[in-house]
Amino acid sequence: MPTVQLDTSGPDGVAVVRLDRPERLNAVTAELVDDLLAALDDVAARTDVRAVVLTGAGRAFCAGHDLKEPTPDGDSRPRLERLQDVTRRLRGLPQPVIAAVHGYAIGAGAEFALGCDLVVAADDAVFAFPEAGLGLSVTGAASRLLPLLVGPLKAKELMLLGERVDGAAAAELGLVNRVVPRDELDAHVTGLAAELAGKPARSVTLAKRVLDHGIDAAVETVLELEITHALLTEHTPEVQQSAEEFRSR
Question: Which of 33, 45, 51, 106 could form a disulfide with 197 if both were Cys (CB 3.0 to 4.6 A apart)?
Answer without folding.
Answer: 51
